């Protein structure tokens, strides 16, 4: 029988500590591949001490950027309205450690929901909800005991108290949070689209994106197996009360993009890779 993280930590503290340190040191940046933002571990009055504020770097604006899980685990979604973290996500990792992502503009699941995520899975977008005065991403790494890691390591770079460092992301460079697909959902749908939801498939993942500038939704299904070799894959999008649009065929990397205008409408969306398929209920009705 495998020991729980808590019991293992009590009986074998050196081993548990080493496992925790290994996972915490393996975290990638919470942004798309190639994006560079400033990780600010400012002091003395940041609450909680040791948390990171991800902010603009140079001319690169962070507002609206896709936020991705820095390591695999189970994501839990919360919304504190105009107080504290605002919209925020906690990802609980296999060794008991946790990461938190706060002040989000959007989340891929509603508050109270949970989602199994891989490293690189989209969980929301950067905003300024809750107790925030300007768009940024509040980020925490916590140990298995719940204590703050006050010198978190991201992309192999340790950002200690009082430090501010520019960090370039290698997250999702394989495409869509899994496998080695060279494309991302955002690349498939185009400029202005951000992931608002996704669902796992055997051999891939299907994504729903939204462009707040023009009111269009976009669905694409990304493969993580048989990459570069044509195999059956599909993506569909159906605004409530309207017909369904589907793209299906034998593709090397992804199906779609399928785009439909649906401002203020609920949509049904999904896709398939081989025989593995997902169909959502009518949802995302904004």
TrEMBL record:
Stretches of the chain forming a coiled coil according to its record: none
Q: Write the record's keywords in alphabetical order, separated by commas.
A: Signal
Gene3D superfamilies to which the protein is assigned, alphabetical: Glucose Permease (Domain IIA)
- Pfam families associated with the record: Peptidase_M23
The signal peptide here is 1-18
Q: Where is the M23ase beta-sheet core domain?
A: 63-149
Q: Please identify the protein, giving its name as recorded.
A: M23ase beta-sheet core domain-containing protein
């Amino acid at each position: 029988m495998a020991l729980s993280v808590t019991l293992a930590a009590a009986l074998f503290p050196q081993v548990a500590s080493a496992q925790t340190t290994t996972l915490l040191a393996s975290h990638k940046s919470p942004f798309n591949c190639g994006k560079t933002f400033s990780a600010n571990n400012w002091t003395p009055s940041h609450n909680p001490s040791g948390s990171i504020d991800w902010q603009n770097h140079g001319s690169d604006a962070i507002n609206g950027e896709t936020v991705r899980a820095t390591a695999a685990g189970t994501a839990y979604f919360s919304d504190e309205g105009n107080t504290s973290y605002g919209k925020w996500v906690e990802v609980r990792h296999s060794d008991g450690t946790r990461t938190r992502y706060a002040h989000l503009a959007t989340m891929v699941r509603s508050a109270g929901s949970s989602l199994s995520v891989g490293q690189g899975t989209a969980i929301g977008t950067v905003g300024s909800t809750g107790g925030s005065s300007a768009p940024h991403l509040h980020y925490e790494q916590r140990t298995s005991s719940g204590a703050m890691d006050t010198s978190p390591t991201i992309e192999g770079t340790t950002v200690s108290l009082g430090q501010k460092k520019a960090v370039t992301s290698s997250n999702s460079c394989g495409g869509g949070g899994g496998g080695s697909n060279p494309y991302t959902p955002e690349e498939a749908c185009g400029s202005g689209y951000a992931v608002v939801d996704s669902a796992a498939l055997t051999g891939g993942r299907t994504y729903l994106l939204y462009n707040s500038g023009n009111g269009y939704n976009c669905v694409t299904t990304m493969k993580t197996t048989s990459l570069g070799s044509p195999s059956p894959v599909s993506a569909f999008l159906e605004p409530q009360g309207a017909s369904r649009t589907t793209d299906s065929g034998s593709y090397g990397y992804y199906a779609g993009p399928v785009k439909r205008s649906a401002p203020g409408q609920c949509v049904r969306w999904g896709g398939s890779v081989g025989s593995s398929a997902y169909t959502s209920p009518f949802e995302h009705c904004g």
